[in-house]
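Forum: Protein Structure Q&A
Topic: Joint prediction for protein chains with partners

I've read a bunch of threads here and the consensus seems to be that you should model interacting components together rather than docking separate models afterwards. I'd like to see that in practice. Below is the full input, 279 residues plus whatever partners are listed. Could one of the regulars post the assembled result?
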Amino acid sequence: MPGIDEAFLPFQQIVEKMVAFTGEIYDRDAGVRSRIYKCVIESPVELDVVRNDQGALQIGSTPPLYRVETTFLPAFHRMMVTVEIPEAEHEE
Amino acid sequence: MRNENTAWQLEDFVDSLVVELDKTRETLAVKAINKPLSYTVKEMALDLNIFPSYDGDNVRFITAQPGQQGASKVSIQLGSITDQQVRATSKLPGVKGDIKLDQIKIDKSAKKELRKLGVNSADDLKQIEQKNVDLQKVTDGDIDYTAIANQIQKSKRDQNPPRLSVRYFPSKGRIWQWIRSSSQWQW
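Posted by a regular:
Agreed with the consensus. Here's the joint model:
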């Protein structure tokens, strides 16, 4: 039975990698510290949807793999993820 | 790159998506232990280019392959809801003694008709009955509810069949049976 194509990552990992940023902007000289408390990421994605040995659907995903214009283009789907720091934490 | 996209039902796809997002939330929750200002996924949306097909029973989708034109679009939006909202909008799964439609031997078309109405178990039917809804009218009399009621009773009996113990009391010269369902000795 096929698994997700090796060029693709499980959907979970794509989202985790997208939100792996610090979100803190600090300028010691100006004495300013800012926090990004909410971020909306919208991106075209390619999907690979397959069933594993247990019959469960696996969703593989990747941002566009190639930037070169070819005779036919991959099918791009669109993903939007909204991430935020929980309210109680960014109000501290 | 391999192109073996599988056809799927929307329910399967959303289930897999939710599982993936749950894993993401767990990972981010662990990360937040040492790094308090970590992000959580609040909302998620996917616009999918798909080709639908209907086999007479189910609608299935397959994601568009490279170069394919004229695909339809399905938009899925997942938002965060609170524990309270989950409790208010969800039915408790696995109510004790409940019988799933799959466990009842009834006509396939009747099962399909009931599922359309959100009935997946004997308990769902009971809830509708308690609200005095006449399912016979809603389904244009296509379903034999007497047969379903009989099958539900049969399944309940199969789950908890009466057990017999037999004793012989020489003094009384009779055979006594312990009937579990009535919890008494009878002869």
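Chain B has two domains: 10-89, 101-159.
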